[in-house]
Specification:
The protein is 43% helix and 20% strand. It has 405 residues and is α/β, with parallel strands linked by helices. It folds into 2 domains: 113 residues, Enolase-like, N-terminal domain (Enolase-like, domain 1, 2-Layer Sandwich); 267 residues, Enolase-like C-terminal domain (TIM Barrel, Alpha-Beta Barrel). An 8-stranded mixed barrel has the order 4-5-8-12-13-14-15-16, surrounded by 7 helices. Bound molecules: 2-phosphoglyceric acid and magnesium ion. The site of magnesium ion has 6 residues, from loops.
Length: 405
């Protein structure tokens, strides 16, 4: 096998994401083999994640690429993913990638891996994960939401479900059926009031978090009996987005730090939630640890804004026993190799990972491949909507491929 695959050409363009904003797409060529990738963007971004774009936006990122990066990457050995990613970071030269932006660096990084994998004739999940990357995650789908993903909705950003069927296909389908049932319940309950879909195609309506909890329980128990399948419940508080002046500001009134800790624990103890993401503001590693200590036997406490896929932040969390789960988003850290480093650290510490979409998505399916490569417990996406289904349907294809080998 060859150990040098020089990059022949790279093309970068602006495209439009699922929220109608510009993002960037990269085509990277090794001879006439192309690897393509487009990067998503978040709305509830962590304070320590890479800046998606420089201040001058996607155009500024593309200009930086043309002026400073292109000449360093053309001719680079595509098989040296770590060196490729490091070159981008070093050329950027800032801690949070303020020149090239996390989105363009992500698109370059994944496009490079994709081109190399295609050239070698192997799927991306095998190229990144190796010969033993053969287990599929379960889909964790957003069904009711609010926060920064909609205008009126719950204070809590996401209420999620994960059907535990025998196949990925059936689990993804039952998640979608739970979503459908929630839509019916909402329109029965809220006759005449508007019900809509948020950025991730979760239902959104002017209801309280407690009402959302009740509706979720009803839909989960009905759908679970209908299909004879266990459906796990999940929540992403995205607590950063409603933390103000030392308090957690819910629609129904504020909660102190201690009340928020008790509230998060009650999701596991009283409401039987399995997946509990970002229950505290991202500076409170100790608050996360208090929650994890109480519920980790039964539930997964997951850090998203807490870690921003950053190995240095994860080290703090490991030391403090802050969580037993981590969310993985490549564009938070801006490269495939640093993402892989974070996943390796997490796995070694017994922390389970979930690869996640962003609220502003493209139809790129790289998250599906990474969830297999990283042995993820879950892939977090919506349950419907083309840009969400791009990932779910790719996993259905990967399931078929793995089962036929
Ligand atoms: C999250 C994500 C995805 P965003 O908080 O987990 O659901 O949202 O992409 O807006 O950060
Ligand atoms: Mg989150």
């Amino acid at each position: 096998m060859t150990d040098e695959l020089p990059i022949d050409d790279i093309r970068v363009r602006k495209i439009i994401d699922s929220r109608g904003n510009f993002t960037v797409e990269v085509d990277l060529f090794i001879e006439d083999v192309m690897g393509r990738c487009s990067a998503p963007s978040g709305a509830s971004t962590g304070d320590t994640e890479m800046k998606a774009f420089p201040k001058s936006g996607p155009d500024g990122a593309i200009k930086f690429f043309e002026d400073k990066l292109r000449s360093k990457l053309i001719g680079y050995n595509a098989l040296d993913q770590i060196g490729f990613d490091r070159t981008i970071m070093e050329t950027d030269g800032t801690e949070y990638m303020e020149n090239v932006g996390g989105n363009l660096s992500t698109a370059l990084s994944v496009a490079n891996a994709r081109a190399a994998a295609s050239y070698l004739g192997i799927p991306l999940y095998s190229y990144v994960g190796g010969a033993f990357a053969r287990s599929l995650p379960r889909p964790m789908g957003n069904v009711i939401g609010g926060g920064k993903h909609s205008r009126e909705g719950t204070t809590i950003q996401e209420f999620l479900v994960s059907a535990q069927a025998d196949t990925f296909l059936q689990s993804a389908y039952i998640n979608a059926m739970t979503h459908r049932r929630i839509g019916e319940i909402l329109s029965e309950k809220l006759k005449g009031t508007s019900v809509g879909l948020g950025d991730e195609k979760a239902w959104t309506a002017n209801i309280s978090d407690e009402e959302a909890l009740e509706i979720l329980h009803q839909a989960v128990s009905e759908t679970s009996s209908r299909y004879h399948v266990r459906i796990l419940k999940g929540v992403d508080f995205a607590a950063n987005s409603f933390y103000e002046g030392g308090k957690y500001m819910y629609k129904n009134g504020p909660k102190t730090r201690d009340q928020q800790i008790d509230y998060a624990i009650s999701f596991s103890r009283d409401h039987d939630f399995y997946f509990i993401e970002d229950p505290m503001v991202d500076t409170d590693f100790d608050g996360f640890a208090e929650i994890t200590k109480k519920i980790s036997q039964k539930s997964l406490v997951v850090g998203d804004d807490l870690y921003t896929t950053n190995p240095e932040r994860l080290k703090i969390g490991i030391e403090k026993k802050s969580t037993n789960g981590i969310l993985i988003k490549v564009n938070q850290i801006g490269s495939l190799s640093r993402t892989a480093e974070t996943v390796r650290l997490a796995t070694a510490a017994g922390i389970r990972n979930t690869v996640s979409h962003r609220s502003g998505e493209t139809t790129d399916d790289f998250a599906a491949h990474l969830s297999v490569a990283f042995g993820s417990t879950f892939i977090k996406t919506g349950t419907i909507g083309g840009e969400r289904l791009a990932k779910l349907n790719e996993l259905i294809r990967i399931e078929e491929e793995i089962n036929s080998n």
